[in-house]
Structures are given as C-alpha cells and as structure tokens.
Specification:
Helix content: 40-55%
Largest sheet: 4 strands, mixed
Number of domains: 2
Structural class: alpha+beta
Shape: elongated
Mean pLDDT: 94
C-alpha cells in the first residue's frame, strides 16, 4: 500500500463514518480478503448509501477511473442488493463479496448479510453446468481420439472452466476467480477429493492428459450422483464407459 493510497482511504472512511446517509462500506479485491496484497494493490471501495442524491454526491466527490489507486463505487442500498445477483449483468462480480467483512455496517449486520448472500448460489443451478462440462469433455476426448490434439486441448481448457462452475455451484458457492482458486481451496476447503490437490489435476487436464480427464470425470460423476444429479450423467449414455476411461 502506498502512503498516499492509504491516507486517501483513511480519509474516505472517516467521511463515510460521519455521513448519516452512508449505511455501509465494503472493500473488494485483495484488500477485502486480506490476501495477495502488494504495494500495487488498490482499494476497491463500495460505498452503500441511503438515497440517489447521496450516491450522486459521493460519485462527484470521488470520481473514479479503472486502475486508480482508490476506486470508489457508490451505490444505493437497493441497487447494492441487486448487484452481482445470478443472471444479472454484474453476476461476474459476485466473488468480490465472498469471504469479505464490511468495513462499515450501520444497519446492525444487514450489509454483511447482503454481502454473504452474493457468495452463495442455488445448488439447483448445478445440473446445466454439469451437462456443459460433460459436453466439453466429450468434445475434447473425440478430438484427441481423432488426432486433433490442439483442438482437444482447447476443449479441455473450456471443460475446466465448466467443471469449476459445476463444482462450486453444487456446493452452493460462487466460483472463485482463477487467481483465487488455490486460496479458496486452502482457506475455505471443500471435501475430499476437492482439496488443494485439485489444482495440479486441472493443470494436467489443460496439458491434454486424457487419463487425468477420465479420473476427474469419475470423481465428478460420483459427486453428481451424491447430489441427485445422476440423470444428467445418464443422459450421456452410451458413452459413459468411454468417458470414465475405458479404451483410452
């Protein structure tokens, strides 16, 4: 943290504490999670206010461009509730609020409750994500079988993304950004075999390792069946034995 950036944030925090229309303040990014913080880490600040007028006032006081050391995102309480909801244009930003405690919460924990909800997803959304993962695995396996090795790796890479979407959704959690996957598995672990050892397994899939692809699918299938998603898996008959690793 540069001294200037830190002093600017401290000033902003004092102003937010004194402003009766500010109801909450959340830090995103590395500083919000207190991890991966470097001298280049900025302050991504969500200032939650009670009215549109206050929102405009804070936006005018702290004009922000992407990449500024202090990025200030004012939002009304209602718009903050809607921000990063599943299916919204800002759904990509949901992980920003996972495992983050508000710096300021004048609503007796309501800001924290809203933030926590953004890091959760409905496990019922996992079925289509599982199907997408299997589809990309199938495409990758077919291309590898036919000698299209670069194309197989392209689909393998996409299958990793879909697999992670499924894995976290089926556990009711938003998928971490790629930078944060290792940290997430270390600090907020899933059950075995979805531990930190998942990272090198995924790397082997990215490198086109068909045996690892099959191994990952077998574990994913077992998880899917435990979570009552066996019908999605069964939809890929008669190719299941092949996807599990038979006659690779």
């Amino acid at each position: 943290m540069t001294p200037a950036c830190g002093s600017h944030f401290d000033r902003l925090l004092r102003e937010a504490e004194a402003d009766p229309e500010v109801v909450g303040l959340i830090l995103g990014g590395s500083r919000g999670k207190n991890a991966y913080v470097t001298a280049r880490s900025d302050h991504d600040v969500y200032v939650i206010v009670a009215s549109d007028q206050a929102c405009a006032r804070w936006a005018k006081a702290y004009p922000t461009s992407h990449g500024d050391p202090l990025e200030v995102m004012p939002a009304t309480l209602d718009s903050f509730r809607e921000h990063a909801r599943p299916g919204s244009p800002t759904a990509w930003n949901a992980y920003t609020f996972a495992h983050v405690e508000p710096v300021l919460d004048k609503l007796n924990g309501e800001i924290a409750t809203i933030a926590v909800a953004k890091g959760r997803v409905d496990p019922a959304s996992a079925g289509p994500l599982l199907d997408e993962y299997i589809n990309l695995l199938y495409r990758s396996a077919k291309s590898a079988r036919d000698g299209l090795l670069v194309e197989a790796r392209f689909d393998a890479a996409e299958s990793v993304s879909s697999f992670l979407d499924f894995l976290f959704a089926v556990h009711g959690r938003v998928r971490p950004y790629n930078k944060w996957l290792r940290w997430e598995l270390e600090q907020h672990p899933l059950e075995t075999p979805w531990t930190i050892e998942l990272v090198p397994r995924l790397e082997r899939v990215l490198n086109g390792d068909r045996n690892e692809q099959a191994s990952l699918f077998r574990d994913a299938e077992a998880l899917a069946r435990r979570k009552k998603l066996g019908d999605v898996v069964e939809g890929w008959e008669p190719d299941l034995s092949w996807l599990r690793g038979a006659a690779l």
